[in-house]
């Protein structure tokens, strides 16, 4: 079985003309630096996956910026929404984005694996949620995947990582439906999410998970503070290799002049 290569970026926070750049950092400049790196080294990839917070305020002009920089990118891409995104505005600019029951989520086979793109945007607030409709959809997708490896891309992490202001904004699973769904799956399954602006990994519901740093600024690891704190750092991306049921996730920082 051939190897699949996936590129992964998250938390772009693009701001269109007239909108202030978050934290006075140019998110478009940082994104372009990452995309140059991907063009230089990874045009053999099968997919580029963007796991939400594509825009800072979810405006149409924000998404036009993204469309313009992805217009001639040589790798097919998939877009997910985060808490800063606006589903309708995103689809105005990217009309081919699949919507199922109003949620921007889909799946596709790739090689011997199944890629699942899960919408975790809450109705209100910056936390995440998976409502009964989305949970039922995911259950069907995992059933259809059978014994094949499944990679579930999403924006919000479902677990606490020990940073109080981030943990308050994780995906809420009050009935533990997502936890028990994954706990009952024995086939290889990898959770991949953004939102945290940090690299983090571990095991949850019996399966490995990976969180990725942002193309925007990283967030500090502060287990005592009650407010989010950002610090200067390079933009980052992920390179995922899938082969013979094995999944390897590489986190890459893009150093050098932007």
Describe this protein with a few key phrases.
258 residues, alpha/beta, six-stranded mixed beta sheet, five-stranded mixed beta sheet, 6 helices, 25% strand
Q: How are the SSEs placed, and which strands pair?
A:
Layout: E1 4-9, H1 27-41, E2 47-51, H2 60-70, E3 77-80, H3 87-93, E4 106-110, E5 113-117, E6 128-129, H4 132-145, E7 150-154, H5 164-167, E8 171-172, H6 177-183, E9 189-193, E10 200-204, E11 207-211, E12 236-243, E13 246-253
Parallel strand pairs: 1-2, 2-3, 5-7, 6-8, 7-9, 9-11
Antiparallel strand pairs: 1-12, 4-5, 10-11, 12-13
Helix pairs in contact: 2-3
Give a quick summary of the entry.
This protein is of the alpha/beta class and 258 residues long. The protein has 6 helices and 13 strands. Strands 4-5-7-9-11-10 form a 6-stranded mixed sheet.
- Note the run of SSEs as H and E: EHEHEHEEEHEHEHEEEEE
Q: What structural class should be given to the helix and strand makeup? A: alpha/beta
What share of the residues lie within helices? 10-25%
Q: How many helical elements?
A: 6
Which runs of at least 5 residues are low in confidence (pLDDT < 50)? Answer: none
Find the count of extended strands (DSSP E, 2+ residues): 13
Biggest sheet: strand arrangement: 4-5-7-9-11-10
Instruction: Quote the distance from N terminus to C terminus.
Output: 38 Å
Task: Tell me about the largest β-sheet.
Answer: 6 strands, mixed
């Amino acid at each position: 079985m051939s190897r699949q290569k996936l590129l992964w970026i998250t938390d772009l926070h693009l701001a269109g003309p007239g909108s202030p750049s978050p934290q006075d950092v140019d998110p478009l400049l940082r994104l372009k630096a990452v995309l140059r790196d991907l063009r230089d080294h990874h045009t053999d990839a099968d997919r580029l996956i963007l796991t939400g917070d594509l825009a800072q305020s979810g405006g149409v002009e924000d998404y036009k910026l993204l469309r313009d920089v992805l217009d001639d990118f040589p790798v097919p891409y998939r877009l997910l929404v985060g808490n800063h995104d606006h589903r309708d505005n995103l689809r105005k600019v990217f009309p081919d984005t699949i919507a199922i029951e109003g949620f921007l989520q889909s799946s596709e086979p790739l090689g011997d694996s199944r890629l699942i793109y899960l919408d975790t945007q809450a109705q209100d607030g910056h936390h995440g949620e998976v409502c009964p409709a989305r949970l039922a959809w995911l259950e069907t997708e995992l059933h259809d995947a059978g014994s094949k490896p499944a990679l579930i891309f999403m924006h919000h992490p479902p677990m606490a990582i020990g940073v109080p202001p981030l943990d308050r904004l994780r995906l809420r699973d009050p009935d533990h439906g997502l936890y028990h769904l994954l706990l009952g799956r024995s086939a290889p399954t990898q959770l991949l999410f953004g939102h945290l602006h940090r690299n983090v990994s571990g095991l949850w519901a019996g399966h490995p998970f990976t969180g990725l740093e942002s193309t925007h600024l990283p967030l500090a690891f502060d287990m005592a503070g009650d407010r989010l704190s950002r610090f200067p750092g390079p933009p980052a991306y992920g390179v995922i290799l899938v082969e013979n049921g094995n999944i390897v996730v590489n986190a890459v920082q893009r150093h050098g002049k932007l």
